[in-house]
Each structure stands twice: as C-alpha cells, then as structure tokens.
Write a structure and sequence with these properties.
Radius of gyration: 29 Å
Order of helices and strands: HEEEEEEEEHHEHEHEHE
Shape: elongated
Strand order of the largest sheet: 1-2-3-4-5-6-7-8
Largest sheet: 8 strands, antiparallel, barrel
CATH topology of the largest domain: Porin
Number of strands: 12
Mean pLDDT: 78
Number of domains: 2
Structural class: alpha+beta
Strand content: 35-45%
CATH class of the largest domain: Mainly Beta
CATH architecture of the largest domain: Beta Barrel
Distance between the termini: 67 Å
Number of helices: 6
Length: 367
C-alpha cells in the first residue's frame, strides 16, 4: 500500500503542475468508445479467457500536441477457473479512471502514447469461490497503459491500447489472500490487463500547435508544386502598388535581398499562415540547389504595440521560419535570424494592407 500511495502522489503532482502556458495550444476535446478484452494477470485462479469481454467510454482533453487528460470508464466481465471438479468464477466490474496522457510523435498519422492514472472499481461476483467474501466490493486502482492512435479522418482516430491495472486489495478474483508479486510496482494485489480497440472522435479542436504546424499542408515524401497564380493573387490583394516586391527567385548577381511576398503573419502572432507554405517550400528548393548560400532571416512587424514588444515578436517570427527550413532539410549552420521590429516598414502603417505587408519575413544573402 505504501508503493501504491507513492505512485498516486506522483500522479497527482504531475496533473496539478501542468503548465498551461508557453507552447500549449488551445484545448481539444475527444470522445472515445469501443470494445475491451479483460483478463486476470496476478490472482489466485487459473486463467480463463473464453468468455471475457467488456467495453469503454472516454472523454479526453488534449492541452497541447503532447499532453492530455482522460476520463475513462469500462465495463468488465472476467472469468477464472477453480476447484476440482473445475468450476468457473465470474467477476463483473465497472471502473472509472483519470489518466494522464503523453503522445510521443503527435504530428504523425500513427501516434503512440503512454498513460498513467488512477481511479476506482466496483465489482461483484458470480459463483464466488470464497464464500466468506461479500457479494460486491469497491476499491481503488492504479493504471498504466501503452497505446496508439491511428488517423482515419480529419476528426477520427482508431485507438488500440494495452492497459495494466492493479487494485488496492486482493479480492477482485473472488478469493482473499495475497498473490505472487506481479502488480504495478511489484505489489501482491490483484491485477488485470485490458486490450482496447475503438475510436476517438475529436469534436472540438483548438488551433494547430506551432510544433505540428511546421508540417501543415506539406507532403513529407515529395515537394508540392508551387502555385504561382495563387502567389500572384496574394501580391494583388495585400501589396500596395507603390511597394516594389519580389517573390523568392534564384540567386542572381544583383539579388541580395528577398522579400517573401505572402509570408506574412496575423496581428500579434508568430504563427505562419497557410499562404506562407508554398512560398517557403520554394525557398527550400532554392537553398537546396545552392548549398553554399547562407542567409539571414529577418523578421519585421507593423507599428502597433511597443517597440520592445515588436522587437521580441519579430525575433520570434524569424525563428519560426528558421525552424521550418531546418525541418525541411536546410542545415542550421547556413541560417541566421535577426529581428528588426517596426524599424524598417516597406508599406504605410496607417492602412490595414500596409500593416499586413509590414508583418513580413525577408532573406538577406550573406555570401
């Protein structure tokens, strides 16, 4: 019980100290459902699995691309063999758990995760092998599981999960008395496993995280063609005619500075817009074809806000673009970042179109 109490204390500390700032995106909510195969693992009975079944329902809240919490409920029907002649004992259980989730590679179509949690289980017996026990009990339990979410749609995931659950007593199998060591942390209490197969429907999703957004809309297998007509539309819509601009082009003798038309940002944001990706992808292609080219990535803002804040924001915007280029295969040693804040406008900050243009990225060729 001391080990169980220690594990519960660690879990509660992790949950209560989650940092909801920094990289955490807006919250996403998911509803899960499916079937469960349960089976006794550490118990006083002979294992029987011919008629074990169950189901689960869950509600989870993902705070970020990596971290989430889940309320999970299960119905369990487990059987074991005892006695001579051999008889079948049944345990019917209903459990509810709060689980901490951590996703290892959240931006991929196949996303493995691990969970640690605690909860309670109410169980009752059929053909109880120990007549000294009551007909039903309630106990606490701790849970550890390893699972995988498989993307099957924009809002749907197939869920497969293996769970290991240790109850805070040893009556779950209908027989009292300590079992051999095998529970979580090596305890002698009754333990059972579950295999879940089902679906998760994300019915509410926040904005894409900055981490995953680096790959939004981009094929990881082959570069997507650049839609130059779309870039031209961006130019016509956002850029005043008096401003001389250029789309990213091959390096020439007199080209030492690129204004990345379309690589703009929302107000007070360092998050790339969807229109920026084809332009940045073209920049990647240029840099890959010119392996000796080194560039300085320059971030700029409009004049809304304090100079100090805009300076910091421009540096964040430059680092966002650098992270994208590195993720697409450009060596970080070829890149530098610099923030200029609001000090170098190329359009009129008194108009919405001008301010949009000033929230931009430029490349300066260093060699």
């Amino acid at each position: 019980m001391k080990k169980l109490f220690s594990l519960v204390s660690i879990f509660l500390f992790l949950v209560l100290n989650l940092d909801a700032s920094g990289q955490l995106a807006e919250n996403s909510w998911g509803f899960g459902f499916g079937g469960t195969y349960p089976r006794f693992v550490n118990h006083n009975l002979t294992a029987a699995g011919d008629n074990n079944f169950g189901g689960f329902l869950s509600l989870q809240r993902n705070f970020s691309e990596h971290v989430g919490l889940r309320l999970n409920g299960r119905f369990l029907h487990m059987e074991g063999k005892f006695g001579i002649p051999e008889e079948i004992s049944k345990t019917i259980g209903y459990n509810g758990n709060l689980d901490f989730l951590y996703y290892f590679v959240p931006c991929e179509p196949v996303s493995p995760y691990i969970s640690l949690g605690m909860g309670g289980i109410y169980f009752q017996f059929g053909n109880n092998p120990d007549p000294t026990l009551d007909d039903s009990y309630f106990d606490f339990q701790v849970n550890a599981s390893l699972g995988v979410e498989w993307k099957v749609g924009d809002d749907w995931r197939l869920k497969t999960e293996f769970g290991y659950h240790t109850v805070a007593d040893n009556k779950l199998d209908g027989m009292s008395g300590a079992n051999t060591s095998g529970g979580i942390l090596g305890g002698p209490n009754d333990t059972y496993m579950t295999i879940d197969i089902g679906f998760i429907y994300y019915f509410e999703k926040g904005k894409p995280s900055k981490f995953c957004q680096l790959y939004s809309g981009i094929s990881m297998d082959a570069p997507e063609p650049v839609d130059y007509d779309r870039i031209e539309q961006i130019v016509q819509r956002h850029i005043p005619e008096v401003v001389e601009t250029q789309v990213v082009v091959e390096k020439t003798v007199d080209t030492s500075r690129w204004v990345l038309v379309g690589v703009n940002f929302d107000f007070n944001s360092a998050r790339l817009s969807s229109e920026a990706y084809p332009i940045l992808l073209h920049a990647v292609q240029v840099l890959l074809r010119n392996p000796d080219m080194r560039i300085e990535i320059q971030g700029h803002t409009d004049n809304v806000g304090s100079e100090r804040y805009n300076q910091t924001l421009s540096e964040r915007r430059a680092r966002t673009v650098m992270n994208y280029l590195v993720a697409r295969g450009i060596s970080a040693s070829r890149l530098q970042t610099m923030g200029y804040g609001e000090t170098k406008p190329i359009a009129d900050n008194n108009t919405p179109a001008g301010r949009a243009m000033n929230r931009r990225i430029e490349f300066k060729i260093l060699n």
